[in-house]
Amino acid sequence: MRNLTILHTNDMHxxxxxxxxxGTESGGLVRLSGYVQRERSVNPDTLYVMAGDMxxxxxxxxEYLGLSTIDLVNIMNPDVAALGNHEVDYxxxxxxxxxxxxxxxxxxxxxxxxxxxxxxxxxxxxIDCNGLHILFIGILTDExxxxxxxxxxxGSFVDLEEAARTVEKICDNYRTTDTDLTILLTxxxxxxxKELAAMLDRETGVDLIIGGHSHTYMEHPEYVNGIPIVQAGxxxxxxxxxxxxxxxxxxxxxxxxxxxxxxxxxxxxxDPVMNDLIDEYKSKTDQKYKRVVTHFKRELTHPxxxxxxxxxxxxxxxxxxxxxxxxxLFGSGSIRNERLGPVVEYSDLVETxxxxxxxxxxxxxxxxxxxxxxxxxxxxxxxxxxEFYQFSRGVRIVYNRSTKxxxxxxxxxxxxxxxxxxxxxxQRFHFDNFTDFFGVPYxxxxxxxKPKVVAxxxxxxxxxxxxxxxxxxxxxxxxxxxxxx
Length: 485
Fold this sequence. Notes:
globular, 15 helices, Purple Acid Phosphatase, chain A, domain 2, 29 strands, 5'-nucleotidase,  domain 2, 2 domains, alpha/beta, single chain, six-stranded mixed beta sheet
């Protein structure tokens, strides 16, 4: 028997800085790195792994197109990292450049070049931890396809069955008799992790799934098909810790203890090297981003993506105000912070809506709009990772989740009729994936009129509006009401 500790994080999303709320410090790379370095020094049989989405969420990340993030993560020197869907946000070519800048291995088994099916990244890594051999395999969510829509040469597996077959193929061909553990390092979300675990043949020998993408906070591992599944929320406020006893003779986990350790002054020392590098990046970005854009009347929130929110209403209303379209559908996932204000600095603005996008106008009939709303409110929406939208003022939706009935769909106080024409504003990312995201064929919609670009920059509109409209406020108004009875 051998003991092994695996530390893991996921969905860091540029959460580099220590937060101080009500006098309590939490998170930050300075202490996260300090925790990892200390645990490695205390126990050489310790690995640190990352389950995707290092990028986005910070001006330090966006200003340097991810290069700063790679520079910072290099200090922590993870033993292996899996790709997340936001790793492709700056483009595949740029990601391949960033991989060359990384001093740690990045794995992924299901991104490939469509013309010859060659994988873009090393699909797996066999790590020798002082004589203990661990095989890691990287699996990425198929949502990456939406982000790489314009890069026609890039493909990805689109179903879990194919991912399961790939895992089994790698295990059959590359797991040696010396492999003591096989671990999937995934970025597909907790529900798909469970589906994938259920599909795997137990003879494949997968011992553990360490996941990301769904930002799931857990109190204990989930077990499916005998495979433990863990995830550590998101950001740097915590780190997952697995303390394992490994049965080397039977190549399996004999005993497992898992916990999510908070990162704060009581649990983690500061890493002075990380501190110096973050200070260097922060001093440079502060010169550009440390200016006040506006003041809200109060702090506005966006607690979840699959519900009407204060920030969602504000952004949708700003983009619709005095526009050429009737209704703005603003992607909930475009809002990356849970709160904003009352003082709004330029850095806050960029970090809250980091995706710079054009706005397209698309004309739909009332019948098509009804189908769109039904699609957005389908059962999968409540898992939190389908596309969901914030609607601008005038829209009222009442939906019964139990009976799956759309009880009301009105605009400006009048029920939407089937033959009514409505002009919708949508962001380019959603326009590029119209059929998949809205559930109505794009070819059907363009018969109503040719879509057109009505704004080149959503963030320019948002910033200018906030500058010229001080003391903004927004409330939950019942634009989206979901009942469950």
